[in-house]
Every structure is written in structure tokens, then in C-alpha cells.
Amino acid sequence: MTAERGGADLHTHTTASDGTVTPRERIRMAREAELEFVGITDHDTLAGLPAAREAAREAGVVLVPGVELSTDVDLGSRRVGVHILGYWVDEAAEPLVQLLARRRASREQRLARMLQRLAEAGIVLDEERIRAMAQGGAIGRPHVARALVEAGVVATVAEAFERYLTPGKPGYVPRAPLAPEEAIAAIRAAGGVPVLAHPGLLPSRLQGLWPAWKRMGLAGVEVYHSKHSPGQAADFLARARELDLVPTGGSDCHGPQPGQPALMGRVRVPREWVERLAARAADPEHTL
């Protein structure tokens, strides 16, 4: 769903994880795109939210605070990554704080293994340079991909993923396991609202798990996304209504970065959807 102004982009990233702009810059971009609401949903961290909150107050943009947890589903022949967004969590909830700390520690271990595998393939990257790119944020494959571009190994981030950082490729290392059910439970226990991110990037057979995830506490589904086709969005909206899941949407903007079009403002969902999502957070029966 798109519009010229207003509305909400509920899925963006900053340098607190694998985005290329700071939380303050992301808020500025939201204001320039004339968004009313912007969600900041960095991977495995809430560290960008204080700065984003202050910048949003100054800019007159409403921040929807969030986090994105990377989980996996075992399909037998392969593991499929499933991302769960959590909005309005209690940022001081100790179980969630500890879970996020463990996830970030596993990212550090994964980085070491990726660099080792790439070195074995004859590609030696500067770990300190990768850490400088991450600016203290949660390190992930996009940082390694950008380092591969900078080193001249590949031309684009997309090529880096395709040639080196996806399953079966020389630099790929699977992430530490976390089930979607665990992520949903952790978000709910912290008073947050769990939402399934970009289902259009997942095998369609996983839609069969939506009812079970709903019973576990899944509250919404990201119907609109920068990589969803209109047909996918229509199907997801119908399915969300069928299961009484709140429809949401976001650009999943990580940039700007070379080779990627500007995404802020390309995906907007109405205020009503944000209010419905917020109502789930305010419902005392929602949390565990």
C-alpha cells in the first residue's frame, strides 16, 4: 500500500544493527518522506531506540519502537529463516534483555566463523574494518557483504550474498537456532506485539503454521513489504483478516546503499493499522 504522504512505515533498520544510517538520520528520512509514523526494528537489539525517540520528538514523527528477531524453521531438507518483529516491548524486561544479549553474542561467534571460511576460500577481510562499518551495532551478514564490496571482491551487496553468504556458499555460517515460538513468547512476555515479517520471502507452505503461531500469541502479519508483489499483498491481507491478525507493512529499509533504490516512503500503511496494533499492546489479556 502506498500514498504520497502520511501513513506508517513500520519496518526500518539503523546502524544499531545492519542499517547504514543512524537512528537520528532514519527519523530525518522519515520526516522528509512525510511519514506520520516510523518503526525502527533493528536486529536483536533495542540500542537505537533512545536516540530515535529523542529525534522523533524533535521532528514531529511518531516512533513505533521495535525489534526484529531472526528465527528458523526446520523443513527437513533445509532450515528457513523466519523473522519476527516485536513492537512496544518493555525495553527493561530482563528475560528479553538476556535473550537479545545471547543473540548478539552468537552474532560475534558467527562473524568469526564466516571470516574463517572466507579465508579458507582465499578471501581475507579486515575484521576491524567490518567492526568499524557496524559502528558498535549488532553485526550481521550485511556488514560482511559490504566489506566484500569494499575489498573489490564483488560489485554489489546482492552479489556478495549470492556468491558467498547464502547456504552452500563459501562464507555462509548458519545462525544460532531460535524457534519462532520462542521469539513470539519472549516478545509477549515483555508486553510487546509479535508480527510476522515479510512472509512473501518465505516458502508458501509456512502459511500452514500461521494458525499455530496465532495461538502462541502472534498478533499481526506484514502484508505490505518492498519485496511483496501486489498479488502477494492481497493474499496476505485476506489471510490476516481470516485469522484476525493485524495487517502491517514496512519498507525494510536498510539504506541508502549502492545498488538499492530509495525505500523510505515506498511502503505506507494507514494510521488505523498502527492504532489496531497499539491496541493489542495495551490489551492486558495479550501478555503472558
What does this structure look like?
The chain is an alpha/beta fold and 288 residues long. It has two domains: 8-102 and 182-282, TIM Barrel (Alpha-Beta Barrel), CATH 3.20.20.140; 108-165, DNA polymerase, domain 1 (Orthogonal Bundle), CATH 1.10.150. The chain is built from ten helices and seven strands. The chain has helices spanning 23-32, 49-59, 94-120, 127-134, 141-150, 157-165, 180-189, 210-216, 230-243, 271-282, and strands spanning 8-12, 37-40, 62-74, 79-87, 193-196, 220-225, 246-250. It has a seven-stranded mixed beta sheet with strand order 1-2-3-4-5-6-7. Strand 6, helix 9 and strand 7 form a beta-alpha-beta unit. Helix 5 crosses helix 6. The chain is globular. It starts with 7 loop residues before the first strand and ends in a 6-residue tail after the last helix. The model has no long low-confidence stretch (mean pLDDT 92).
Q: Strand order across the biggest sheet? A: 1-2-3-4-5-6-7
- In the CATH scheme, the class of the largest domain would be Alpha Beta
User: Rg, please?
Assistant: 18 Å
The amount of beta strand, in percent, is: 15-25%
Overall tally of structural domains: 2
- Report how far the terminal alpha carbons are from each other: 32 Å
Number of helices: 10
| Shape descriptor | globular
Mean pLDDT: 92
- Uncertain ranges: none
Q: Sheet bearing the most strands, described?
A: 7 strands, mixed
Helix content: 40-55%
Give helix and strand order, one letter per element, not per position: EHEHEEHHHHHEHEHEH
Could you give me the name of the CATH homologous superfamily of the largest domain? Metal-dependent hydrolases
Return the structural class. alpha/beta
InterPro entries: PHP_dom, PHP_domain, Pol/His_phosphatase_N, Pol/histidinol_Pase-like
Organism: Thermaerobacter subterraneus DSM 13965
Protein name: Metal-dependent phosphoesterase, PHP family
GO molecular function: 5'-3' DNA exonuclease activity; 5'-3' RNA exonuclease activity
